[in-house]
Amino acid sequence: MVSSDLDALIEMGFDKERAEIALKRSGGLQGAIDWLDQYQNQSLDDIRAPPATSINDDDDANTEPPALQPGEEAQSLVCNECGKKLRSRAQAEIHASKTQHLGFAESLEEIAPLTEEEKKARLEDLRRKLAEKRAGMSEQDKIDKKRNEEIRRKSTKETQNIKEDLQKKEQLKEAAAKRKEKQDELAAKEKIKAKIAADREERRLKAEKEKAERGGRAPPPAPSAAPIPTTGPVASKPASAYTEARLRLQTSSGNVQKSFPVNTTLFEVAAALNIDSGLEVQSFTQNFPKKVFDHVDFGATLKELGLVPSASLIVR
Fold this sequence. Notes:
- This protein is about 50% helix and about 10% strand.
- The protein is α+β, with helices and mostly antiparallel strands and about 325 residues long.
- The strands form 2 sheets. A 5-stranded mixed beta sheet has the order 5-4-8-6-7, with no helix packed on it. It has a 3-stranded antiparallel beta sheet with strand order 2-1-3.
């Protein structure tokens, strides 16, 4: 019988050790069902511990049933606090654990065992409770998994944003380095040209002087600087004299007017628009004169592109 009760509990989904402990503590299938229902939330380590004695031998004299007569044998136990009838000492211990009722007395009344239908009903009820508990745990697992996924996505997005910011900063640094390298190269070329021109002029003057000396003539005078005209219209300020460029940028959300240093690259202008308005700039279009500045031109400065002192650009 014990073996069949154990098999029945194992078929319900209980592990073998928990089912064996339940049968040992309760003494039968009915008690095991009550016991498993009571301790279903406790771990194996907790239920392995020996149960504490929970039946109080000092019963309440006012509520205990009549004392057994000589020759009479107890058939059940009665809780002195709530009057519940219990078939065995194991069931009394379970009742005491549930309710903290400690007073029990022996009774002559025999409690009929569960019928097969009642046993099946109790098993089905316990099986249903187990299924509900597992479904609840499964639902909680889904909630935890969803929460962990949201945390992972948020972390991934924040990491991606940091990477994109670092990439933009690196691109700005590279653009600035290329611009400085180009400026240094142009300055070196201008310096070399000026040096060549000065050497050429020095050689020419020296040759003319030697020629004049051989012919007995006075050396030619040194060239004087061209006189500055005192009349006539005042010349406009050259583009090279400006330090800032005023840009009127036509975007899909409206016009934006900004001022940038003349050495700012188009890439830096596009980056500023992205930070301020969230626009991903692909190109700039100038109507007068008609010209399109795409990514090939993004490394050039506003001064190099002829956008100084001011320009109107359509943002694409």
